[in-house]
């Protein structure tokens, strides 16, 4: 058998194998397409249910006062607020410039993070509560989860020590304590937070310690 015949036979065999492989691949692609179609339908259904649940949550949150930054009129109302919402950021304030700076940022975050209740209370009119929670420096943010104070942001120490910090920096600090849901990258304060071991209660910021 000459070389041309051998070459022809080999080519036919290769074509046959290639056709078989191609048919097999087509069959598997079709199977995957069918599977994907079913999976997509199931995913759509799950997603729809998740969206419905989230819509219900949003309605519930808004009914509780989420989505806006509001003032608590008295200590009794404070306990009602923290029991009603899973996550609460409470600003203990007095009428001074540092507290007004904090107000500005919290007003923005309240709209961005509807999952968390943002409130403020006058520390000078809530002496029992301020003493119970050991509030000394103003402003102080009490970060509350499941009706318990989980962490504090005292003064501006953790925000660069000055009043020109950004809303994003405060947002990242709150996210660090998981009192807000935050999917962004916490890069702005990464260098500042590294190596920081000082307790939040040992604030050296002297904005107002009266």
UniProtKB/TrEMBL annotation:
A Pfam family in this protein? Thioredoxin
The protein's name in its UniProt record: Thioredoxin domain-containing protein
Query: Polar residues compositional bias: what residue ranges?
Result: 200-210
- Thioredoxin domain location is 74-155
Q: Which InterPro entries match?
A: Thioredoxin-like_sf (IPR036249), Thioredoxin_domain (IPR013766)
- Identify the CDD domains for this entry: Phd_like_TxnDC9
Where are the annotated segments for Disordered?
A: 188-210
